[in-house]
Amino acid sequence: MYAGIGIVVLLVMVFGGFTLAGGALGPVLKAMPLELMMIGGAAIGATVIGNSLHELKLLGGGLGKVFKGPKYTDQDHIDAIALTSKLMKVLRSDGAVALESHVTEPENSAIFSEYPRLQKDPVVVNMICDPLTLMVVSSGTLDTHAVEDVIDNAIKSQLHEMDEPAHAIQTLADAFPALGIVAAVLGIIKTMGAIDQPPAVLGKMIGGALVGTFLGVLLAYGFAGPMAGRLKQVNAHDQQIYHSIKQVIVASLHGYPQPLVLEAARSGLPPAHRPKLTELLDQMRGK
To answer: Minimal CA–CA distance to 81: which of 215, 219, 282, 225?
Structure first.
């Protein structure tokens, strides 16, 4: 929502200020479609050249996140901590055999079914079930530090994939000014081919060419750059759920009491989205 509001404010202030300063929008609007075609087409072509189909799909999803915001709500973070804590409680109290059905068939797990949003999220499910499956097949004898290393590698891989769209958008932001210059140079070449025309005609042609430079800079610093920054913020918020899951598993394997396990996971969340410890304790008690 805020991204859409920002775009409206940007366009109104830029073009409104230009108009109030005495500028004529007619020549700008006349030149804009073809300039956008050249700059935007070059940007799309460069993006296709530099990315595989998988990365292009991620880029589309990343652009959606800019406008939709974080995938995980504050309640999702609480639920992830509670879900993982309940599974670790089963492992501690009833053993690996009792846990097996929950982590090998999470879609049929009574514990997972308490949290339907997370149950439908394959990334969260795998982040929880993969290390716990290791515990099951090893009958709970794995070294805690080895399990932590496995989780760290899984998180690192997931974060790398999440960050790819932001890198691609930032690359576009860096390229837009140069692509704007390309469009402007083509406009100057066209102008030089009509050098015998009256000054009024040449002035319009040069003005149209400069629209390319204007658009390149505007797209870079008014659109693509801020979008890349916003996407990084969204990813930073969403990735916290994976760290919370890790903290619950590692702290539980160390044998910490449940309140300390919950606090270890809770304290890693950003202050603006950090639940109270009492909320987590109430969640575990089923309140």
So the answer is: 282
CA-to-CA separations, 161 to 11, 57, 60, in angstroms, rounded: 32, 11, 13
Q: Taking the domains of the chain in order of start, what are their residue ranges?
A: 32-287
Q: Are the C-beta atoms of residues 248 and 264 closer than 8 Å to each other?
A: yes
Separation of alpha carbons 117 and 242, rounded Å? 15
**CA–CA gap between residue 244 and residue 64 (Å, rounded):** 25
Q: What is the DSSP secondary-structure string of 32-46?
A: HHHHHHHHHHHHHHH
Token pair belonging to 179:
């692509």
Question: Do residues 162 and 238 touch, judged by C-beta distance below 8 A?
Answer: yes
Cβ 77 vs Cβ 275: under 8 Å = yes
Rounded to whole angstroms, the Cα distance separating 276 from 107 reads 29
Checking if the pLDDT of 287 tops 60, the result is: no
* Prediction pTM value: 0.85
Chain-centroid distance of CA 59 in Å reads 9
pLDDT (tens digit per residue) in 54-86: 999 999 999 999 999 999 998 899 899 999 999
Question: Tokens 């759920």 — which residue?
Answer: 241
Q: Which amino acid is at 68?
A: K
With CA atoms as reference, report the closest residue to 16 among 4, 2, 28: 28
Which residues make Cβ contacts (< 8 Å) with residue 62, sequence separation at least 6?
164, 165, 166, 168, 169, 231
Cβ–Cβ contacts within 10 Å for residue 20, how many? Answer: 8
Instruction: Mention every residue, 6+ apart, whose C-beta is less than 8 A from residue 67.
Output: 1, 3, 4
CB of 77 within 8 A of CB of 240? yes
